[in-house]
Write a structure and sequence with these properties.
This protein is mainly β. The protein contains no helices and 26 strands.
Length: 370
């Protein structure tokens, strides 16, 4: 497939999650909710976004009231705030509507399993696209977290950029439960493989996370899912967003909704721009045959079926994932993450320019969310 993409630089921008949207594949027309009460509480999101004027990483909190209404609040950009409404279906699919009148052409799509949330906009007709991942904050009236609740081996996928080029990385990290995080393996799309030095981390009572004093994020209630981001370009211009799962012995199985955020870095002249696109991927993974079937729909309006055979593998010892395209990541019960850290052209798709990507998927549930 050949993509028509935005020309963007990775710069600080306001939240795109509830400030954009569009018709896109699957639309909101005829979307049936009715299970809004199952989505209730505060979630911290990291977002990868792009628009015709720029792109970057954002951190913000969304509060779902359980009645179809909610509010969003920027974490770094505190002036970025406002209301939204939402609809939640029985299988965990949902729609966010920034327009209080529920304008059917103004929405964001998503999937949740109750504790994790994925949102994505794969329609660029309004001039902006994004994907984001959210983790529920801890109700401190019920329990509290600290550094001891974040320990063990994790695999992370990361995407970032400095305004000139973008990078992706797959990072293995050990949290010691006492406030020190050690990177045990590191590989990025620039070819770097040297792990950075250990860094300190803190976990607040509600699960809010700080790494190395500058990156902020969230730990889930079981200490098995982490999101964090650096949304301050500072002096080097670099921003990044990172999603990680604790290593486990789960497999990839069932029906998933996934969002993908991809970047084509500048090519030799005269093509010297960064192009960005998002994709919606609706897929079924069969744990018996370790094969994937499904469809994809890109933000330029192109779509199609996932080529078959599409064979994936999961290491039974730790849940490390390798997708049919060679992209690597991590599974957990009901979700997966993956990244493409190889910027070379796919031989099976010679028209596609070299690109890198990050992907996040959540299993659709069979019954009403609890």
């Amino acid at each position: 497939m050949r993509y028509v993409k935005f020309i963007v630089g990775l710069v600080a921008v306001g939240s795109l999650l509830v400030a954009c949207g569009g018709g896109g594949s699957g639309g909101s027309v005829g979307f049936v909710g009715g299970f809004e009460s199952a989505l209730n509480g505060e979630y911290r999101f990291i977002e990868y976004g792009a628009s015709v004027s720029g792109g970057g990483v954002n951190i913000f909190d969304l509060t779902f009231e359980g009645d179809g209404t909610g509010t969003y609040q920027g974490v770094t950009n505190t002036s970025d705030t406002g209301p939204f409404t939402y609809k939640l279906a029985e299988n965990g699919e949902f729609r966010l509507y920034p327009d209080p009148l529920n304008n059917p052409t103004f929405f964001v799509k998503g999937q949740t399993d109750g504790s994790l949330l994925l949102t994505y906009d794969n329609d660029d007709s309004d001039g902006s696209i994004h994907i984001s991942a959210g983790v529920g904050k801890i109700d401190t009236t019920v329990t509290t977290l600290s550094e001891v609740d974040l320990q063990g081996d994790f695999r992370f996928v990361e995407a970032g950029g400095d305004g000139t080029t973008a990078t992706t990385a797959v990072i293995d990290v050990n949290f010691d439960g006492s406030g020190t995080a050690t990177i045990t393996s590191y590989e990025d799309s620039d070819g770097n493989i040297t792990p950075p030095a250990p860094v300190p981390y803190t976990v607040a009572a509600n699960g809010e996370l700080t790494i190395d004093g500058t990156m902020i994020g969230q730990v889930n209630y079981s200490g098995s899912v982490v999101v964090f981001a650096d949304d301050d370009p500072g002096t080097d211009g670099f921003m990044s967003g990172t999603i990680g799962f604790k290593e486990n012995q789960n497999d990839l199985d069932g029906d998933y909704t996934a969002g993908q955020f991809a970047v084509d870095n500048p090519q030799p002249p005269p093509t010297t721009s960064i192009y960005t696109y998002t994709s919606e991927i609706l897929m079924t993974a069969d744990t018996t045959t370790h094969s994937i079937t499904g469809t994809w729909a890109d933000s330029d309006g192109t779509s199609g079926a996932i080529p078959t055979p599409a064979i994936y593998s999961v290491d039974p010892a730790n849940g490390n994932l390798t997708l049919p395209t060679g992209d690597i990541g991590q599974v957990r019960n009901g979700a997966f993450i993956a990244a493409d850290i190889d910027p070379t052209t796919d031989p099976a798709d010679p028209e596609e320019t070299p690109s890198i990507m990050i992907m996040f998927g959540i299993n659709k549930v069979d019954t009403v969310l609890k």
